Amino acid sequence: MAITEYDNVKKTMEIYIEGSRRLDYDTVLSVTHPDARLFLGDKQTSKNLREHWLSGLDRFNDTDRDEYYKKTMIEILSIEVVGTIASVKLNYNNWYYDFHNLIKIGNDWKIVDKVSHKI
Asked: If you compute the radius of gyration of the chain from its CA atoms, what whole number of angstroms results?
């Protein structure tokens, strides 16, 4: 069975999800475009997504990573792919809905923005 772009986008997001649950920022950043933005819907602010994740390193320094992994559930709710763009909706612990937009660069899919809404 041939691998589709849908499968490739799903794999990219699975890498992102696993990195997020493990607080492994190198993994998360590996699927993120350097200019990616984060938009927080409830605060109506935006910032560089990589800088946001890197700032989390300090925030989670004392976190038990195994415990965090066990209690953090991130579910892919939908994936839509059109040519070289894609949109993915995630449910993050029934706490946030995140919409990620991706673009295909060469053979790789990269997250270019994330919009979050606190539930």
From this structure: 14
Residue type, 85: I
The 10s digit of each residue's pLDDT in 13-50 is: 999 999 999 888 899 999 999 999 998 877 777 888 88
Per-residue buried b or exposed e for 71-93, using 16+ beta carbons within 10 Å of the residue's own CB:
eeebebeebebeeeebbbebebe
Q: Is the dihedral of CA 2, 19, 85, 75 positive or negative?
A: positive
27 touches 15 (CB < 8 A): yes
Give pTM, 2 decimals: 0.89
The rounded distance, in Å, linking the Cα atoms of 52 and 116 is: 13
Structural domain of 33: 5-118
Nearest alpha carbon to residue 52 among 115, 119, 118:
115
Question: How many domains is the chain built from?
Answer: 1
